[in-house]
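Internal tracking record. Fields below are filled automatically when a chain is submitted to the structure queue. Please do not edit lines marked as system-generated. If the sequence contains nonstandard residues, flag them in the REMARKS field before resubmitting.
Queue: standard
Priority: normal
Entity type: single polypeptide chain
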Amino acid sequence: MIHSGSELLFKIDLGEIYLQEFSIKDADSIYKISNQPEISNFLPDWKSTKEQRIDWVTNYEIPANKAFLEAVKSTGDIKDHSLKLGVFISATDELIGWCCTGIKEELPAPNREIMYAISGEYQGKGYATKAACGLISYLFTHTDLEILNAVALIHNVPSNKVIEKCGFTYQAGRVIDDKRFNHYKLSKVDWERIYGGGVHE
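SYSTEM-GENERATED OUTPUT FOLLOWS
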């Protein structure tokens, strides 16, 4: 189910968890999670000071999310817009990570990717897979997207498993910023064949 919450924030309800567009009040939790060693080791670009994170959420990520959602509403053509959603525990409304989509410049076109991160204390519970599948379902159902990419460091075994569980097919190894990644793709056609179109929504 997709709806707007009490603050008119875009939300995807996935039962035990939900995805919701970033708000300014999320900046502190995002800052803390992004600086956990188990997150920053794999996503160094997300590491920041608290002040930087507040600035990024306020001046870049919230406006970018609004532009993405407006594109979906008006035409369904998301072009090169990005969407960053927090992952929340439904029972407590605690932010435990994020699930995002944007253009991965290092990949050949069409190069839209999906990525995710879950706080260390909540890893190993299936939340990353549920969040990723929820966002994939939304993208293939509500936008003009036909192909999604995902990359994971070759030694990040849990992340590679999440990608495979979501239906992605391995393409090749790639070197990005001197690090070795596995590159995967998922087409809308294959997603509909595997999941029947929308079962995660």
